[in-house]
Amino acid sequence: MKCERSSGILLHPTSLPGPDGIGDLGPEAYCWLNFLHDSGCSLWQILPLGPTGYGDSPYQCFSAFAGNPYLISPALLLNDSLLTSQDLTGKPTFPDEKVQFDEVIPWKLTLLDKAFNRFQTHNFPDLQAEFENFKAEEKLWLNDFALFMSIKESCSEASWSHWPEPLRKRRAKNLAEFQGKHAQTIEKHRFRQFLFFRQWKSLREYATGKGIRIIGDIPIFISYDSADAWSHPELFTLNSQGLPTAVAGVPPDYFSPTGQLWGNPLYRWEEHQKTGYDWWIKRFQASLKMADIIRLDHFRGFAGYWEIPAGMPTAEKGRWLPGPGKDFLASIQKALDGLPIIAEDLGEITPDVVELREAFHLPGMKILQFAFSTTPQNPFLPHNYPCNCVAYTGTHDNDTSTGWYETASEAERDFCRRYLSSSGAEIAWDMVRAIWSSVANTTLAPLQDFLNLGSQARMNFPGKPQGNWSWRMPPGALTPHLVDRIRELNFLFDRLNPQAQARPNLDGATQLI
């Protein structure tokens, strides 16, 4: 990462407002980028953009390479004449404050099916040429993904472990027969990916023009029920029947007293090493087509990871095993000609994790909510930050800062108020100001903290399998007053986006705030 001081806001696209029950890549996303630019921010952090599966989690996707079709904007499809205004009639009534996935998903898929049918039955020569180019450029992952999703659809959405054995084990004759019978369905899934990446590319180009870099997210582990595990079982800890023998998680920590049982299959790192980490290199390259910087989730797993025997009810029983370490990162660095990575180094951090991060000069993460439970030597307190770090009030896995303060112990609340010289009346803003004024090169906070929202706006609760990821920004939240307030912080603490131009004041002079 570059060393200039910068700032940004964490907001997943699903949390944007809009008429279709879920935030998408359409007009509201462009308004969001305008807001970031006008407020002087230069970073937009998102969560993984993959197609979500179990629990609607962006960390449990059907592919490490594909995009989430629920993020495709119907408004932009209307502009492309792939939908008509008549197609948008009969829309359910969606709440503004949350995503109701069980109602949103069938609505969005209905619209995408209509767009695909129109594409096939009408003349779109330019779009057809774009589609053919996309299929050729992305064939290394796209064909397996489209086939995987089509088989899954034909099997009533069952996990691939429950598919008929010839398809589960990828027998060539049976796959060829399936492809012949289901060519239209396979093409439909390719087309959805084309639409997603086409819309995302335009949005990212707009962000670049506003001086805004996007921070993406690579989860260390992939979902078991994914095209990746099905098409490359040799890379994961799966037995001859394709079932996991060991799964991922973390032991008990400050997030959960029984640990976190993620259930993802673990990597056969020796197999990855034999290929020069080819799958991982392709994964990074694909991610950097979508983002400028990558938050590498669970970075400590590359130094050492927690192996849990398959079938355990919690993550309490397991063992630490060595990760691929410096060999892995050196291979990625060589392939990418650099490492535009933020190391998510939270949790149980041992000296080997610190050594690995520092060997490649990667910035780690500092979470202010973790700072007030011990002494002034706590490394999460701003006066202890190194310059090469990314400071947050909290992340998507934390409560909002207001919610944290309302539920913290009185000892923590007292320390927090004393440290911040705060009455606690507007604690989220006081915390934002503390990290913005720190020496950390990069600072970020969830939008919920700028809106002073409580626990009802929390995005995720680790260990809770359902009911997460549904928060949406209230309509009208991005007010001129909020723009000015954030811009003031960015100006005062030398974090102003260089492309956020000076604005005229009432008497015609120019001012930055």
List the helices and strands and how they pair.
Layout: E1 6-10, H1 27-38, E2 43-45, H2 74-79, H3 101-121, H4 125-137, H5 139-154, H6 165-168, H7 172-181, H8 183-209, E3 213-218, H9 227-231, E4 246-250, E5 260-265, H10 269-274, H11 278-287, E6 293-296, E7 304-309, E8 319-322, H12 325-336, E9 341-343, H13 351-359, E10 364-367, E11 389-392, H14 401-407, H15 410-420, H16 427-436, E12 442-446, H17 447-450, H18 480-492, E13 503-504, E14 510-511
Parallel strand pairs: 1-2, 1-12, 2-3, 3-6, 6-9, 10-11, 11-12
Antiparallel strand pairs: 4-5, 4-7, 7-8, 13-14
Helix pairs in contact: 4-5, 5-8, 11-12
How does this structure look, described?
The chain has 513 residues and is of the alpha/beta class. It is 38% helix and 12% strand. The protein contains 18 helices and 14 strands. It has helices at residues 27-38, 74-79, 101-121, 125-137, 139-154, 165-168, 172-181, 183-209, 227-231, 269-274, 278-287, 325-336, 351-359, 401-407, 410-420, 427-436, 447-450, 480-492; strands at residues 6-10, 43-45, 213-218, 246-250, 260-265, 293-296, 304-309, 319-322, 341-343, 364-367, 389-392, 442-446, 503-504, 510-511. It has an eight-stranded parallel beta sheet with strand order 9-6-3-2-1-12-11-10. A four-stranded antiparallel beta sheet has the order 5-4-7-8, with no helix packed on it. Helix 4 (125-137) crosses helix 5, helix 5 (139-154) crosses helix 8 (183-209) and helix 11 packs across helix 12. The longest helix has 27 residues, at 183-209. It is globular, with a radius of gyration of 23 Å. It starts with 5 loop residues before the first strand and ends with a strand. 46% of the residues are buried. Residues 504-513 have low confidence and may be disordered.
